[in-house]
Amino acid sequence: MKVDGVHYRTIWLNRDGWGVDILDQTRFPHRFEVVTLRSPGEAARAIRDMQVRGAPLIGATAGYGMALACREDASDAGLDRAEATLAATRPTAYNLAWALRRMREGLRPLSEADRVAAAYRLAGEICDEDVAINEAIGEAGLPLLREIAARKGGAPVRVLTHCNAGWLATVDWGTATAPIYKAHEAGIPLHVWVDETRPRNQGAFLTAWELGRHGVPHSVIVDNAGGHLMQHGEVDIVIVGSDRTTAAGDVCNKIGTYLKALAAHDNGVPFYVALPSPTIDFTIRDGLAEVPIEERSAREVTHIAGRTAQGALVEIQLTPDGSPALNPAFDVTPAHLVSGLITERGLCAASGEAIAALFPERVAA
Ligand code: MRU
User: Fold this and answer.
1) Residues 6+ apart with CB under 8 A from 56
2) C-alpha 112 – ligand 1 centre gap (Å)
């Protein structure tokens, strides 16, 4: 997407032809900084410390992490080491395991001499495919917004979204935001309710920034406001992303998504999940029992970052000295609360049968 008229992806090859450039998302929205990754260790750190985040972008960064690893040591042992380090960075987003498996399957049959070039080519393919997939998700979701707009006779379609499932979470377009950007391009009036998404505030920091840069009308709301807005008819549709969706349609996403799904269900508001197929984990069915939920540092709850009036970036403590905190980063929304999935192959029900019918080759794999 464009930033001040310049087209950016979230990850790209440095001018030197081998370093990997990323936008440092820990500095948003107050700083726009490009960082160059030059080793698999730096790629792993960027994922773990959330300089890059969002399931699809985590996968893409892991792909390039393996390419950087091949430059250092393209032996089987070298690749095993790098893969283990990258795999251990974040446990929930399935795109990470998917991308590492794809790199492994592409690289292992090759001689060591051929692995570096092949790894860069494969990582580039993962990125290009992500862009195409997300654009297709946008096209698949657009009719949902168009239909609501037609019913509302020119009044804005009010979309609620949680976390950042925008272009910053992917290589480009985003997942939940792709239909929003497509609708905006098509001239459909929109207003997006952006959940702030404590504790890391991906909504307030990232989604609000990218919608603002793109000229999409929006308001940031506190996480607890969504249910109230739904009760008062202020939300036409909820669209969120996913970090891992099971073969039966249970959706794991940023903590707090489940509460929005409950409120949407209670108020008859359609609740859609936009996701690329590499987010679907065909090896599991029961989201609650089987998806590993990342638990992050208590400091993300007890402290908050922001900009002072003088422009300095600072972190301050919110909670009393000594109060412990708990920080589960994701939750699972059971399939029965999901109105539908928006995938690159079109809309489908959140059910095992519908997912299998849309992606038969993945079920067999
Ligand atoms: O912890 P994060 O910021 O990596 O979590 C991101 C999310 O939960 C997104 O909603 C999800 O990855 C979908 S992104 C297209």
Assistant:
1) 95, 130, 134, 169, 170, 171, 175, 276, 278, 279
2) 35
Residue to mutate, 240, 253, 327, 343, ligand 1, most ligand atoms under 8 Å from C-beta: 253
Q: What is the CATH number of the domain that holds 52?
A: 1.20.120.420
Taking the centre of ligand 1 as the mean of its atom positions, its distance from the CA of residue 76, in whole angstroms, is 31
Of 338, 315, 328, 319, which is closest to residue 256 (Cα–Cα)?
328
What pLDDT, on the 0 to 100 scale, is given for residue 364? 67
Residues in contact with ligand 1 by the CB-under-6-Å rule are 53-56, 93, 163, 165, 169-170, 174-175, 202, 241-243, 253-254, 329
Each residue's pLDDT tens digit, 283-295: 999 999 999 999 9
Which residue in the list 130, 236, 243, 281 is annotated as catalytic? Answer: 243
Q: Ligand 1: distance of its center to the CA of 277 in Å? A: 15
- How far, in Å, is the centroid of ligand 1 from the Cα of 247? 19
**Do 96 and 146 share a domain, yes or no?**
no
Q: What is the residue with the minimal CA distance to atom 5 of ligand 1? A: 54
Q: Is the pLDDT of residue 212 over 80?
A: yes
- Please write the tens of the pLDDT for every residue from 132-183: 999 999 999 999 999 999 999 989 999 999 999 999 999 999 999 999 999 9
Same domain, residue pair 117 and 149: no
Instruction: Please name which of 292, 293, 275 lies closest in space to residue 355, comparing C-alpha atoms.
Output: 275
Answer yes or no: do 6 and 114 share one domain: yes
At residue 323, the 3 state secondary structure works out as coil
Predicted structure pTM score: 0.97
Active-site annotation holds for 243: yes
Say which residue the tokens 């409120």 belong to: 263
What is the chain's alpha carbon radius of gyration, rounded to the nearest angstrom? 20
